[in-house]
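Journal club side-thread
Mid-discussion, someone asked how the predicted structure for our own chain would compare to the paper's figures. Pasting it here so we can look after the session.
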Amino acid sequence: MSAVTGREAPAAVTDRWSLVAVAGMLSFVAMLDMNIVNIALADIAGGLRVSAQTAQWAALGYQLPLVALLLPAGRWLDAVGTRPALLTAVGGFALGSAAAAAAPWAGALIAARMVQGAFGAVLFVLMPVLAMRSVRPELRGRAMSLPATLGPLGAVTGPALGGLVVDHLGWRAVFLVKLPVCLAAWLVACRHLPRGGALARPARTEVTDAALIGGAVCAVLLGLTLTADAPGWLLLAAPAVPLTALWLRRAGGQPVRSVLRENRTAGLNAAVLAVAGAFAAVHYLLALHLQRDEAAGATATGLTILCFPLAMGIAGPLGGRLADRYGARPTATAGAALTALGFLLLAPLGDTWTLPDVAWRLALAGTGMGLYGGPTQAMVMTSATPATVATAASTVQLARSLGFTLGPALATAAWSLGGSGAGGLHLGLGLAAAGSCLAVPLLARHGRPAVAQAA
């Protein structure tokens, strides 16, 4: 495994910002696909003449394999070449998108989406690896900020873009809007990625490991997804505990244990999970509150919530520059603290608040999110050994993806427990603020024990 990394490492001496741009583009479309289809589910159900529950699998068919295969993909990518893996993943993702757009019936659509999700898992892991290896170490904060910022922006803009596409071009076009980006990324990568390395077929033990961790992740996601209809479905998540324990005892779990324990990244991944979950929960709760309780129109609600991604997109490049100049840890900690402050200020949301009152608080939190994203990802990646850099990428991407998935589910549960009125809203916003506050000490403590020992 280290031999492959050794052949590719010298290429990072020459800064290739075109490849960093590829990482950003593909992070955007991979995260975009997690949400853009949700807005088209009603049209898919009508167009293919299936139930709403069946149409829902157009979204789940992508999300489940993507999240389930992140950790196995990381281990596999540590042993193969970056160039062939990237070109294959982009090509497979694009072909899956085209097949989904052309699907004549629901079964074909779901199968195409599962193919997309499998290749999407490889893209998720490759993006931070590609950004890190494309520039010199002193520029990694700037490079890592691009995919770390564009990925969440894709998740936020997915529903808005999907609505425009469905209204003007129909639901099938939702699967085609990504193809120009995929083609451009494939051509740039084909031209600028250093040649070398090869793909390797996963060993039988790796397939078994993938089945175990994939089954655990699928059990959790299915349980949380179906709990909204009946709380008893949460029992589906129970098998995740023995499946994960068995996987951790096998050879496939050793690199992940090494990354989390020996490289001291468990706290960083917990911080990523907490902030992503808080971000997704606040986005969900505010959209629901403004439209249902405040009777704000869809346009006014969208413009208000848009303040978060706009501020995040502006602050993202600044976060990378600050990390390269002052260090990743203080930049990430300051960004997380700013995000936590914005969410804390949103927690007492009242009926007398105007949309601008909500907007500036969201902009404050979005600015912190932009400052925090790239430096945090750089901290995780640089803490790993060269032989486990893809595994490190898979852990942080899994933490982020689980946060985006669990946030709305936990927000719904909090809203139900606190009552259907202001009590439930405040409980959900308070939990999101608490999660973002938890990330601040986790980030601030990273690396301090090792520095003390070295002294």
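Post-session note: The radius of gyration is 21 Å.
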